[in-house]
Protein 1
Amino acid sequence: MPNSHLQEQLGLLHQLQQLELAILSLHQQRQSIPLKIAKLEEGFQVHQGALDEKKETLAVAERELRSKNAELADHQEQRQKYETQLREVKTNKEYQALDTEISYLQKKESEAEDAILGIMLDIDQIQEELRQEQASFDAEKEKVGLQKATYEQEERDLEAAVAAQQQERKRFSPDIDKDLMTGYQAWGRRSKTAFVSIVKNNACGGCRIAIPPQTLKEARKFEKVVQCSSCKRILYPLPEDEKETNQASE
């Protein structure tokens, strides 16, 4: 008959191992969430950048429009002054000089008006593109907000799951033999891999190497701790493993 005490101890140690592996997995999942959120926000910055760029394009066009309007107003004001002076000149030479200036300013006014019309058309186009960009931005912002909230809820759920697993670990880990626990902790510090290996189909579950029959027989007695000769993990045969072996030999 197997030594029930050692069998129970190895069972507890295996449960502890499974819990800690689960906790490690939960921690890794939780640690990945800030990276997911950062990637989400980084992607969103593309939309923010496109919107900002379109706003700046509009601002540049509006500044250009104001500049052209100011330029047109200056030409008109100067032309009006010349036209006033034109009515007061005494000589033909003065008249011709002012008339030349007035013609030049009229030409500049026409050029400014054409430029203003072109800029206004550009502004209309930019404003329409900006409305579309804003709609796209708002939709993406809502989408990102919902996804971020999902990630944050997932993070809270993982934190709760870790806390529950840690509580479960505390519940039975004090029952594990001190020497076994010391060996388990030392192994974890060295290799960061499983310490207890389930025997499956007469092989070590850790390294998958076949266990010699005599070693397997000793492990199933649970009279002492038996290690895999290959990977040095503690072998933990389950009752089902022995049944499978017997069935295979029949």
Protein 2
Amino acid sequence: MKITVLGTGSWGTALAQVLADNGQEVLMWGISEDEVNDLNQNHHNSKYFEAPVNENVKATMDLAEAKDSDVLLAAVPTMALENVLTQVAGIAEKPVIVINVAKGFHPVSHKRLSEVIREIMPKDKLKAVVSLIGPSHAEEVIIRLMTAINAVSDDEEAARTVQELFSNEYFRVYRNDDVIGAEVGVALKNVIAIASGILEGIGQGDNARAALMTRGLAEMTRFGTAMGGREETYLGLDGVGDLIVTCTSRHSRNFMAGYQIGSDGGAAKFFAENKKTVEGVFACKVVYEEAKKRGIEMPITEQIYAVLYEGKDPKEAARSLMARKLKPETSGVYEKR
């Protein structure tokens, strides 16, 4: 199988190495000459990692080299996904499996990324869409630390193919057919991760973050099931699993964005200086707007939206959550007695 990784960023590089470790033919495509040359000549992607990259990973700036691929792994920023896949669709010689690894929503249509991919790729060029998502940091995968994630698709055969392509002694892939639930979960956890970083930035401790993650999981589940996902998904890798890793690690861009915002006392400096893709910033706006439209209670998301887009002080946002009307933790708890 020929597999092309679209994008030469950190996650695309780490996943390309997993494939190369498994003996797969893998080619990376990117627009950065420095990154492409670094991969080909030095077997490194020094912009992101100190660790070397499997020497069988090759890279190119010529997208035409992807025309005969069997599998395309889309590891470009969400904002670039449409443009890149439109170009690929124009040159693809046969139907391909498209693997999505981004976690978010389309910034305008609010659609999930698998939906966006299906709209871009002509039916005669698309075999299936699989989202490869779950609790994972590229910084750990590149040095082959143990990781487990999900191949999510309504096409079981394609999900199984992806599972078999990537699984090895340090990288384990499960299958999940709850496409809506999983894609919503991994997008919304980025919003909660920003909140977690804010708590650390304003000087709060483990108690506060434990409460945030727990109530954040309830919020994810409430929103995800309202969108059509299954409740049990949020107790799995694409729910609580991804929530834990993103809310507790300094490898997380969303956590670190929140930490900066909390430390600075607001989001203005972050927006003025940030040059990285922080998916939770965009996801927060989408989730906030969709929740308002559908009447879904999302107190954490509402406060993070206020900090990001309305200039609210992070400490005041935290106080607002603590001052909400007192209630049972779960609905109907007393009625069942």
Protein 3
Amino acid sequence: MEKFTVLEGVAAPLRMINVDTDMIIPKQYLKTIKRTGLGKGLFSEQRYRDDGSENPDFVLNKPAYRNAKILVAGDNFGCGSSREHAPWALLDFGIRCVISTSFGDIFYNNCFKNGILPIRVSAQDLEKLFDDAERGANATLTIDLERQEIRGPDGGVIRFEIDPFRKHCLLNGLDDIGLTLQKAEKISRYEEKAKAARPWV
């Protein structure tokens, strides 16, 4: 998993509440178990018209936000079903951080396991970040995970809280497999000992 230390990029404003995982990545994209290629399906029912052409009114289709790395979203983002394809789609599109006042629990947990930083902020701070994000290409935010800071284009700073273990994992690029591999030597020693004790197994 790619390390998350400092992220600087354009923030796209998504002023919608209760965005569920089916809206993030509709069910027809769930046939794959690959983590790549899902970016094209991200918010597809909002991004594309029935004839397959782009909807110019949707935020991620606007020129200023096509390469957004940060999403500023309304309350209860990522609610609904537990599909892990939702963070996969965000990551494949290029979004590494989602900021909201609240998240669906399973989506929130899945983000950390896939290298995305979900940040909870107050309603007042979210409104300030929406104002920043609505500046288009000038809507550059800096997310400093070590300092637990969001720095705005005008130099304003918003602090955020994060579980220390999850912070450690993101800073070091450790998913569940990476955490296990840190103990590879101990696992090998245990397996050798078990093999010697029970050679018939």
Protein 4
Amino acid sequence: MKVIRISAFIVLIDQITKIFVKGISIPFLGLDLPGMQYGSSINVIGDLFKITFVENPGMAFGINVGGYAKLLLSLFSLVASIGIIIYIYKVRNEKLLYRVSLALILGGAVGNLIDRFFYGVIYGYAPLLYGRVVDFLHFNALGFTIFGKTYESFPIFNVADSAVTIGVAILLIFHKSFEKKEDTQIDKDLINTDKMEAQLEYGNSNREDNKLSNN
């Protein structure tokens, strides 16, 4: 379960970057970060890569959901995160890379889950579970169309989204090597079973031979 530390690190970095972008004010702690104006951008690599502050009220690629659908999305994210934690424990003896990929997905899921659960209350614009996800990583290239919506640049995302994407990519790229380990273990179990059956048959044959010889 040590890979959970990776998840915790992703959540920490994700939330710190989001707070710096969105800003926050906690008077009794003397904390006052102004953040960025909504929709404003800071060029990092010319016009190619920017920090652009936007908020996503729904799902990936800006697909908007509201009302009970948004509530269900938040609850589903919570259940999925708990499920991943349980699964990571179950596969704690599997390959490290496999567990790392799951930890990345978990960290990303929890990072965005915090936004949906608490940001509406913290920033005073929505009740619990109805918060908006803060996005800011903006690559102004790779225009494409998906779900009937055309994007002139890659959708703005965040650290949590990046972690989920990398985790899923690892699973897709190396899934055969993960399966091979499982298949190899199954083969070993079958071989061991065959050996046990052979030993039992050999033992039974010896007992039968001894009986015949005694008779």
